[in-house]
Amino acid sequence: MALNAHFVTDFWAITKLLFLLCLFVSTGSQAATSWSAQFSSTLENLLQTNPEHLPELNKSAVVGFYAGNKYKPLWLDADGLLNRADDLLNILVHADDEGLKPSDYYLEDIKKYRASTDREAAVHLELLLSAALYRYSSNVYSGRFNPHDLGINWHISNKPLDVANLFYDVSGKTSITALLDKLPPRHFVYRLLKKQLHRYRDIEQQGGWLPLAEGPVLQAGIQNRQVVQLKQRLAISGDLTNKKSLSLPVFDNELVEAVKHFQLRQGLAADGKVGPQTRHSLNIPVRSRIKQIQINMERWRWMPRNLGKKYLMVNLAGFKLYLLENNSVVMSMPVIIGKAYRSTPSFSGLLTYMEYNPYWTVPRSIALKDILPRQIRDPHYLASKSIHVFSGWGEKARQIDPQTVNWRQLNKNYFPYWLRQDPGDKNALGRVKFLFSNPYAIYLHGTPEKYLFNRRVRTFSSGCIRVKDPVQLAAYLLNDGSQQIQEKILQDIFLATNQSVKLPVAIPIYLVYWTAWVDQGGSLNFRHDVYGRDARLQKLFDSK
Q: Which residues have a Cβ under 8 Å from the Cβ of 22 and sit 6 or more positions away?
């Protein structure tokens, strides 16, 4: 039977179309293969010679990734940038959301090479994007700076990011936004600081706040032209929420409460009056507060990602100890920290046991600097403090009558004795001592000098941490802090014998230095840089 003429015509037309299509696909495939081969060859050469002198390209994570992947491109194909490259660029452009500098991540050079159509320029672009990923991921995960190299007394380590594994994870995903979003700290305080950073930048863009000129103490009932300016200032920072009376120059009760709220956030005495200290804090520019937030976000990047289900945190700059469970504060109390010239370092450890009615073996430095001069002035000083003098150690130790010692002949080069204070009300460690692993001979303890907790700035110790209520702390560490547990501890203490008590579970403890944080009530707190550690870190932020 003869074939239909139209069918024959259509058949040959379709066959020809399929042939041309296969030829086009084959040619395109060959072109793509050729592009890839040439790109990989150029990439291998440029990676090995590193003409841009990018420090990240000397890292084994980058070199090893490309070598193991046969120098295939990570960010481009023959048609241009891949989706994951766009994701990375979007993250880098908004790096300031994390308190970082977008300009650190080669954005200007990336822009230059992205505008070029040259194949070698495309390879430069590939390498710049990889260098940017390496730098950004390391910075946002572990910090821009290594605290161990800064001389700022920070000895808490965050496990380094596995950048090599990150590169392989990136290579297996079309979109990497979710992957990169997991890199910053997940702790709730960091996330809240990030929100406050955004808010304070908005305040700065709207002009910030004007400083209050010198003037009288502003307090309840006063009428003064500065009252209006004060109200506006507190409204901008969110301390004064009712804005209906902003134009009235009367210091009313709402303003008193707003001033108190501001003072509490600054660690000032909350008396509701604007005296010299409060006026000074009000006049700190918003730009300085932004820098303070950025510095403390950096410190959070130095922290371990997993702090533990239950842990203690001592904020040195805030003079406060917190016990947290599941990231909720279950107990807090004031503390006393080291003097400026005997500053308490930031470090972490495991608190494993307590000691009731502790002896105090006086550190040699304290014996020389503090106790020796007092004993010289008053020959009965040691006896009045129940401090005994010993010569020798261990089984060979023997007690010495302090009246037989020529104290004026002793000095840092010759001090053949050691001192120990008996347990009791006079003991410098109070009634409870909390011991945890660290190389600095630092621990938590009580104190007989309770009046010092009434001071706002509490830098009185020789490095150890004095806690206001050691019995309450002990009760929480042993159980739930109940009154029954506290009474049992007091009974043990009143036996007046030295006793070691092992905790049922070792508790992680972190001695940190936060000068900006958001409390669980949502208020942004600032504190004075008592040890000057912010100032030293800020110089690095400004110089790099």
A: none
Q: Are strands 524-526 and 516-518 parallel, antiparallel or unpaired?
A: antiparallel
Place of tokens 């002793």: 410
- The catalytic residue among 124, 380, 464, 528 is 464
Confidence (pLDDT) at 343: 96
What is the separation of C-alpha 456 from the centre of its chain, rounded to a whole number of angstroms? 23
Q: What is the DSSP letter of 367?
A: I
pLDDT of res. 541: 87
**pLDDT of 29:** 54
**Alpha-carbon distances, residue 103 vs 54, 106, 135, 276 (angstroms):** 14, 6, 12, 39
Residues 6 or more apart in contact with residue 530 via CB below 8 angstroms = 316, 317, 340, 457, 459
Is the pLDDT at 24 greater than 70? The verdict is no
CA atoms of 220 and 231, how far apart (whole Å): 13
pLDDT tens-place string over residues 69-121: 999 999 999 989 999 999 999 999 999 999 999 999 999 999 999 988 888 89
Q: Are 400 and 417 in contact (CB under 8 A)?
A: yes
pTM to 2 decimal places: 0.90
Q: How far is CA 164 from CA 40, 43, 133, 215, in A?
A: 19, 18, 11, 60
Contact (CB, 8 A) for 465 and 336: yes
Residue 464 known to be catalytic:
yes
**Distance, CA of 32 to CA of 213 (rounded, Å):** 69
The DSSP bridge partners found for residue 526 are 516
Residue 431 and residue 496: Cα distance in Å, rounded? 9
Strand bridging mode 499-512 / 465-467: unpaired
Residue 10 binned pLDDT confidence (cut-offs 50, 70, 90): low
Catalytic residue status for 388: no
**Which whole-number Å values give the CA distances from 419 to 396, 413, 425, 432, in the listed order?**
15, 17, 18, 19
| Catalytic site residue from 53, 124, 261, 445 | 445
DSSP state of 98: G
Stretch 275-289: mean pLDDT: 97
